[in-house]
Structure formats: structure tokens, C-alpha cells
Amino acid sequence: ETGAICGGRIYGFTIPKLHSHRIHQTNEASLLFLPPLFYYLCSHMIEYKKKILANGLTVVVNRDPVSKLAAVNILYKAGARNENPERTGFAHLFEHLMFRGTRRIPNFDLPVQMACGDNNAFTNNDYTDFYITLPKDNVETALWLESDRMEGLDITPEKLETEKRVVIEEFRQRYLNQPYGDHTMLLRSLAYRVHPYRWATIGLTPDHILEATLPEVTAFYKRYYHPSNAILSISADLGEQQMIDLAEKWFAALPDTPHPDDTLPQEPDQTEPRRLEVERDVPADMLTIAFHTEPRRSPDFYASDLCSDLLAGGDSGRLYRRLVREEKLFASVNAYITGDLDPGLFIFTGQLLPGIGFDEAEKALWQEIEAMKDCPATPYEIEKVKNKFEANTLFGEINVMNKAMNLGFYAMTSDASLVNREVALYQAVTPQEIAAFSRRTFRPENSSTLLYRAKR
Question: What DSSP assignment string belongs to 285-322?
Fold first, then answer.
């Protein structure tokens, strides 16, 4: 299969999302008057070639004639959504374990460093991603390493215990012993009842990792880390067929153990508002309201994304202008979407200023939410956020690693043609569609409100 990408994007990171790369330094008014060269670059198609190997591995490659680096990305369709509710945190645990060496290569990082490369990984609720950047002449080093750990990971009791301690300590430091650290965990458990999105990537409790056994961990590896559950994407100044041939050289001989896709419980429609109030040792009160939204591949996604930018797209966003600058109720305020593969959340959140009560702040926030239903965006507002989206797309494509990641992400969505159409889909959204999305979504019975109160 051959095609092209115009503006690839990645959504749903647990590390800072590429989707959230907003160019805050850009003069917003100037985005209405971008030079013709900008539009020429934005319309430039990034050619790619795709092939599925006999063992099920999806390979997507792109020739980048500008970069001297090669980017090799492996996406495994294994995220927090694929975990046993009694053993959460396994996908994140494997993000760590995959760097602990294989039977052939005890030190994964050393060959990467010797090849003048760099590598890292991230996990979210939908998938786990590993990436390596290195000089293009050394691209086979990355392919050799990734093919080796796809089937030869050396999970010993000692290595498992070491990484369990690391993950448990991360859980404590980032989620239990940090101000607002459990905010996301509380919100997910409030908004979801049955879907695996009800826990964060780190898991429900550190006890799940503490009690994990070697057979359980090995079974997770065999279930999800195999060719037909992975996508290899490469971007480099190499011929597309050459990269395909290299992928076959290093991966075609790997055996596959195909499994049926996981059947996940579907979250029932929320029919009444939910509320939770907690008290924590934090510097300021925080108010959060979350609404269920359609999945990433829904047509609603584009209206929801632009809606979040209209509300919180920098200092000129409606929420900041009204609630921070004019009414002086919040110290900071934000609106964003989770962008999950399954139905996700549209989240409003803000830190209250001293002396402001939750009742007053919540009423004012709801007024701004209601305004989106009846007051469509002005032509200036919507043109500005669309241009900002295109700017982020263009500047993101400069990075060879972003290209490789985006190739992998779009291949995972099962709609390869989407990569050619997504910029146009954003451009086609009308103010009336944003208002209609707001009316469907921002309903009290569809809301989950978290009152995060600071100890007095």
C-alpha cells in the first residue's frame, strides 16, 4: 500500500503529548496572514510505503531527504486498556522491562550509544511506543536491537524485582507524594465505571505491581509483544524499498503468536451527574469537570479538538479571557480532550484564586460551557485556531522522529486514508458543528465534577 501523509499527529501521550505542542510564542493575529510558502509546505504530501510481513508485522516507511538522522519506531498495541483489572500497570512495567536486555544483548543502551543514537519510550492507555534516533548509516543497529527484544527479552526474577521497585517508587513519587498527583486517578475512577480507562497508565494501586509474579509478567509479554501486534515505522533518507527490505531482513524470521483482539467492556451512557470532593495538602483548590466524548476516530473528534482550542488556546482563549483576566476567579484554567481510541473525556480544569469558593467558580465555569452551545465561534476565532493547528502540523513534520511516530500511530487507527484527509477535516469544521457538538456533550447528566480542596 502506498500513500501520503499531510500533517501527522499523535494523541493520548502520558508524557507531554505531541498533540499538545501548541506554539504559544506565535503571534496569534499573524496566523491569519501566513505567507504563501507556509501554505505550500502545509500542502506538501509526505510520501510513505506500507507493507505487512508474512508474520503479521506492519511496516510503514518514509523517505526524508532532508534529515541526516534515521528514526525507528515500534508501536505495540498494548496499553493500560489491555490489562487485567486485578493486575494493572503491566503495560507501563514493560516500558521499563524492555530496556533490561535480552538473552543476546544484556545491555540495550550500549549498542545505541556506540551507534551515536538515542532511545526512549512512553506508554498510554491505548499503546506502548519505543523509538530510536541515530545516523541513517547506522539504522540497522536499531532494527537489530528492536527485532531482538521483540522475541528475546530476558525476564529474570532479579530483573523483574528491580523494575518492580522502580515502578512502585515512581508511583509513590509522581502520584501519591506529589501535589495533585492523584488528580487524574480520581477523575478517571469517577468518570468511568467499567471501561479500562477507569485507571491511569501507572495502574490502580502499587500493590498490583508488588504482587506481580514472573509467570504473569511472562504471559503478558507473550500475549502482546509479537509481530502481528506491532507496527514498525521508519523515517530516513533511504529508499523506501531499501527500508522495507531491511525490515524483512531483521523481522521476517520472527515467529508470531496471533491472538484475537481483546474484548473490552463498553462504558454505558452516563445518565446523571457525578460529584466527588476530596481534601489534600495542596497549595490551592482545584475544580475539574469532565464530559464523555466520542472516540478518536469519530467525526466529532475534530469539532471537539477545535472547541478545546477555542476555550483554552492561549491567553486569548475564552476561559482565560473571561475567568482569569476579567472575572479574576481562577489563577489558571484549561480545557483539553484525552483523544483516546475508545470514547474519551473532554476536561475542564482550573485552580481557584484565594478567597473564591467552589460554588462561585463552578457557576462561572458552567456559564462559559453553556455559551459554547449558543454562541458559535466567530470567523476570526475559528480561523485562528485552525491556522494554529496547521502551524503545529508543519513544524512537527520538521522532526524526523515525529514523522516515524505519526506513521505508526495512523497505521494503528486502521484507516490509512485518514492521514491524507485529517487537515482537510479540521478545515471543514464549521462554527455550527462546534455548537452542535457542545450541545450533545456538555450536558449536566454527562458530567463528572471533582472538587479538589486544599487543606486549610
Answer: -EEEEEEE---TTSTHHHHHHHHHHHHHSSTTSHHIII
